[in-house]
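User: Hi! I have a protein structure encoded as tokens and I'd like to know what sequence might fold into it. I'm fairly new to this, so please keep things simple.
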């Protein structure tokens, strides 16, 4: 590139940066990034969904987020995870029940009959207690009012555990809601009686309905597996390109008709030392006239690691057909109530800022039927009048080392001069 071309390149780069820069009021100059909140509705609650760019440029795990208006006034907000689809956790207290039968039909199944009592509440989940450490078995669940006439309420569902891979699995089965007195479980283990030490039946629980917000935010493109490195497993090694993203979801895809595989998840700060953090399962199978599937693995949110390693444990099966993977996190919403006739910006990127404390976070109540406005976020802009909030020594660490080096040289020089100067009391 010629000198003239290089000069033109830098001029164009400077103009482009100026086009995506905005000045902030004096109290907010320590925030490096901002985005306009376009067309807020002052008569209702508003929310904006945070995208990957905001997550990657925030500090202190979103503690530096602020909303300010065009006069520099701060607007309170509440940060919430987007509601998940209804998936109630089992209550801590199961219904009173007794196992009436625990038998084995050789070459067919282990059968367990549970008596929930004459006045059973409505129930829809059963958990099998077993000492078995490594297994995957299919379970059929049937219900009956008299223990003679049975109706199937779940034709096929898996229970599993893979302790040798440090994967706890899931020993619960969800089925059609009913208040039958008896439940019958048939565990499809043909070679021997599957050990069942007990079973717990849980009542139906209410689940909050989700708002109209996507519950998952993708953090990567669809990724194909690494080249085969080890037998019996499919592996991905992922560089997110950023160490400031919260990861909590893996989304798998495959065109294989039926499967059930365990997945192992590890992460690393440097791509060299790996730590296994979680294990889960993915599956797809036919259950009567519908397909049951779970292709998302969710785990405790992890901030910081840039590198991720995901392994599907195939056992003796071949790799899943056309298997792909995407990394994601839970969507987050910033909820606020704008004032009339004001313009607003979302600002972020200040490592010295801590999470704010607002009354609004304690007083906010959202009616399930309430409609929230969803203004859009403008393009990310650098703060044109940015003032770095870090102390001078942190902003210029090389100067500190330079000063230390000069001090060492001066001390050495002084020591040499002292050694070379004759003492006044030395006899001549």
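Assistant: Happy to help. Inverse folding works backwards from shape to sequence: for each of the 428 positions I chose a residue that suits the local structure. Here it is:
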């Amino acid at each position: 590139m010629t000198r003239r071309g290089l000069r033109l390149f830098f001029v164009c780069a400077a103009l482009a940066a100026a086009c995506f820069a905005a000045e902030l009021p004096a109290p907010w100059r320590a925030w490096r990034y901002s985005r306009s909140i376009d067309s807020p509705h002052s008569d209702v609650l508003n929310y904006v969904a945070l995208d990957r760019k905001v997550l990657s440029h925030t500090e202190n795990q979103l503690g530096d987020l602020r909303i300010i208006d065009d006069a520099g006034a701060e607007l309170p907000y509440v940060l919430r995870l987007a509601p998940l689809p209804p998936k109630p956790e089992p209550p801590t207290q199961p219904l009173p029940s007794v196992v009436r039968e625990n038998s084995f039909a050789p070459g067919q199944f282990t059968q367990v009959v549970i008596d929930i009592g004459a006045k059973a509440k409505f129930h829809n989940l059963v958990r099998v207690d077993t000492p078995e450490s490594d297994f995957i078995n299919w379970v059929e669940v049937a219900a009956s009012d008299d223990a003679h006439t049975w109706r199937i309420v779940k034709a096929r569902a898996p229970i599993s555990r893979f302790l040798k891979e440090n994967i706890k699995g899931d020993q619960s089965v969800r089925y059609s809601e009913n208040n039958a007195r008896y439940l019958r479980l048939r565990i499809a283990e043909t070679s021997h009686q599957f050990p069942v030490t007990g079973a717990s039946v849980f009542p139906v629980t209410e689940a909050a309905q989700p708002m109209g917000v996507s519950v998952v935010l993708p953090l990567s493109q669809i990724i194909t597996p690494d080249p085969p490195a080890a037998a019996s497993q499919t592996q991905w090694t992922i560089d997110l390109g950023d160490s400031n993203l919260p990861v909590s979801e893996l989304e798998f895809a495959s065109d294989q008709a039926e499967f059930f595989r365990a997945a192992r998840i590890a992460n690393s700060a440097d791509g060299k030392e790996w730590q296994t953090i979680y294990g889960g399962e993915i599956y797809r199978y036919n259950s009567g006239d519908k397909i049951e599937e779970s292709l998302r693995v969710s785990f405790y949110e992890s901030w910081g690691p840039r590198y991720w390693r995901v392994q599907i444990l195939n056992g003796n099966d071949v790799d899943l057909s056309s298997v792909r993977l995407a990394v994601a996190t839970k969507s987050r919403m910033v909820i606020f109530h704008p004032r009339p006739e004001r313009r607003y910006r979302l600002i972020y990127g200040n490592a010295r800022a801590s999470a704010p404390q607002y009354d609004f976070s304690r007083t906010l109540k959202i009616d399930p039927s309430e409609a929230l406005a969803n203004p859009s976020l403008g393009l990310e802009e650098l703060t044109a009048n940015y003032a770095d909030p870090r102390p001078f020594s942190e902003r210029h660490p090389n100067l500190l080392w330079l000063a230390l080096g000069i001090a060492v040289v001066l001390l050495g020089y002084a020591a040499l001069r002292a050694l070379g100067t004759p003492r006044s009391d030395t006899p001549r």
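A useful reference point when you look it over: Residues 397-420 form the longest helix (24 residues). Feel free to ask if any position seems puzzling.
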